[in-house]
Amino acid sequence: MRERLRAGRPYPPAPAGRHALSRRNRDGTEHPYIVHVPAAYDPAAPTPLRVYLHGGVMRQFPEGDDWWRGEDRWVRDDALVVAPLSWNASPWWQRSQIENLDGLLADLKRRYNVDENRVHMLGVSDGATGAYYFAFKAATPWAGYLAFIGHPAVLGHPGTQVDGQMHAVNLRGKPLFIVNGGRDRLYPA
């Protein structure tokens, strides 16, 4: 018994590559996501997980599973990479996405050997704003955040319709890496 506890939970082998999946929130809303499993994934070894939040969330729900563009820039050989979907009825800064990502992480941790200490959130544009939202609102499962071309002030605008209160103290002890360029039209450095 002691050895089984020490060895940890056994995970089944997982096919490498791109997998289009989905999960449903309690209200029945379906949330599609894409998982990339690296060819070198070893179910016996804890593996880092990177959750990529895309931009352009004020668009309609897209048809099909080709909504994740530029995935070749995000896929890693040393980590599981997941790309959940956000759209105008379920933007990153709503409770529906907190429920979605909490459930998504739980699903992934049951299916894959995820290194709990290396679960990072990355976001671009609206996805970066979503990363700020999660950092201020629901920081617990995340080891750190990478925000590219976003701004936390967007969350303070009434038109954004952010759900609930956010607290800067949630950032304590959480790395936050921010990238904005001097030529960015929306959020110049």
Strands, helices and their partners?
Elements lengths: L1 H6 L9 E8 L5 E8 L9 E7 L26 E5 L10 H17 L2 E11 L1 H12 L6 E5 L27 E4 L10
Parallel strand pairs: 3-4, 3-5, 5-6, 6-7
Antiparallel strand pairs: 1-2, 2-4
What are the key terms here?
189 residues
Describe the structure.
The chain has 189 residues and is an alpha/beta fold. Helix content is 19%, strand content 25%. Strands 1-2-4-3-5-6-7 form a seven-stranded mixed β-sheet. A hairpin with a 5-residue loop joins strand 1 and strand 2.
What is the CATH superfamily classification? Alpha/Beta hydrolase fold, catalytic domain
The gross shape turns out to be globular
Give, in spatial order, the strands making up the sheet with the most strands.
Answer: 1-2-4-3-5-6-7
Helix content estimate: 10-25%
CATH architecture: 3-Layer(aba) Sandwich
Rg value: 17 Å
Query: Terminal Cα separation, in Å?
Result: 56 Å
Alpha-beta classification: alpha/beta
> How is the main sheet built?
7 strands, mixed
SSE ordering: HEEEEHEHEE
Quick recap:
The chain is an alpha/beta fold and about 190 residues long. The chain has helices spanning about 1-5, 95-110, 125-135, and strands at about 15-25, 30-35, 45-55, 80-85, 115-125, 145-150, 175-180. The chain has a single domain, classed as 3-Layer(aba) Sandwich (Rossmann fold).
